[in-house]
Structures are given as C-alpha cells and as structure tokens.
User: Fold Pectin methylesterase CGR2 from Juglans regia.
Amino acid sequence: MWRRPVNPSRRLGDSGGGGLLANSKSRSSPILSVGLIVLGALLFIAYSYGNSGASGNNMEAISRVEGDYSCTAEVQRAIPILKKAYGDSMHKILHVGPDTCSVVSKLLKEEETEAWGVEPYDIEDADTNCKALVRKGVVRVADIKFPLPYRPKSFSLVIVSDALDYLSPRYLNKTLPDLARVSADGLAIFTGYPGHQRARVSDVSKFGRAAKLRSSSWWIRYFIQTNLEENETAVKKFEQAATKRSYVPSCQIFHLKSFH
Ligand SMILES: *[C@@H]1O[C@H](CO)[C@@H](O)[C@H](O)[C@H]1NC(C)=O
Ligand SMILES: *[C@@H]1O[C@H](CO)[C@@H](O)[C@H](O)[C@H]1NC(C)=O
Assistant:
C-alpha cells in the first residue's frame, strides 16, 4: 500500500470521538469503580515514569544505530540551541515536516511559546494526542507543494525538517520562498547529510519516493540562485550556543532570512 501526499481538500479529524463517555454504564458497582480508579492511577504513574529521565535519549540512540534517525527528532534535540540563536523570536513557531506533532507537543511545553505544525503526509496511524492537535487546528495536514494557508509573517520562526528532501527543485522553487513568506524573523532548515541516512524501504512507502539528500554546497548554491539569504547573525549565535553545550547535530542546519 502506497501513501501519497494528502489532497489539500481532504479534512482529517472530522470523525466524532465523543462516543466513549456516553457508553460508560452508570449502574456499575462502587467496588468496580474504585478498582478502575486505582488501575487508572497505576497506569498514569507507569506512563509518567516511562516518559521521564533517560528514555528519550535511549530511543534516540537506538534509532541512530538502525540508520533511522530523522531530522524531525533532531529539531527536538536542538530546541535549547535554537532558543539561544533566536531569543525572543522563539515565541510563535511553525514547524513543517513529518511527525510534526512530536515537535509541536514539545514546543508547547516551553514557556511563552506558541506552536503550530504542518504535516505534509497522511497521519492515519497518528496517536490520539496528535489527532487532538489536528482537531484543534494546531496541526494541519497539507501538501506543501501548494501555498501554505497562512498570511505573510504569520510566525516569528518557521522550522522545516525532513520535508524538503522529498521535493524536486521545481517544487522547492515554490515551497522554500513560501516558507520564508510566512515567517517574520527567520527560517531554520533541517536536512539530512547525503550518505548518512541510507534510502529506506519505509521511506518509499511513506512518502511515495525516496529522499534525495543534497550536499551543503548544493543547498548554498540553491539558496543563492533563488535569492534566499543566509542569516549570518542566526548562524553565528547558533554555532556559539552549540559549541558551548557540545551539541553536534546529526543533520545539516541552515538559517535563512525571512522576506522583508
Ligand atoms: C528554480 O528557480 C531558479 C531561480 O529562479 C531557476 O534558475 C531554476 O531554473 C528553477 N528550477 C526549476 C526546476 O524550475
Ligand atoms: C536573523 O536572525 C536573528 C536571530 O538570530 C533574528 O532576530 C532576525 O530577525 C533574523 N533576520 C531576518 C532578516 O530574518
């Protein structure tokens, strides 16, 4: 089964989810209720415990060993460094890329940060948290080959990961300027290193084609050709913060200026 980029006219999250509560029986015995509450509490504790501490890092290490490391995961790792590089401009963020719910959820936990997401691919297998974000309109499912449904400068910072690698130059020519259009204080691009990530079968089935990972010199040449300028201030601040925290990204990261 092949999955294609979504049709922009399709809407997700319209299926009702309100049926659960209505089904719970009001005549269930008190002992059963207490039992359920205790069970719920135990599950909650187990869940919180599983989510805390080192588990995130372990996951990351495992994915990298399997060659399955994504730049969307790298964005999450880079948030503290991005905060140093962009300062106050980290307050209203749009993330564009597969698995955007994970980034948006993480950004929403940061202080004084609003975040939205554009998911370029179908999310039929998304978890309930993600589906709730879609239902609330925080995350949109949209084909990024078409203009984004936002006004110019709607966001202070736009971050894109793992999405441009799947676009040919013909579409890049439209999509990249559009990302710069909707941002006010910059555009951060996370993209894979050629040779680092091998073409994966799962990629092809998920995105319809394998990622084309381009070299840093290819991107720089491309930016110049399309009149997109690198933001030297952001580049410098990002590098300084990265050095200070010994942060070594597993993806190429570019900082572009917004259109003025
Ligand atoms: C993309 O835009 C650049 C600059 O405008 C142009 O030189 C190039 O031919 C375009 N590429 C495609 C594939 O349309
Ligand atoms: C360049 O980056 C800085 C953050 O380091 C940001 O404040 C500024 O608005 C950016 N400039 C443009 C033109 O995007």
Observations:
- The first strand starts at residue 92 and ends at 96.
- Residues 30-51 form the longest helix (22 residues).
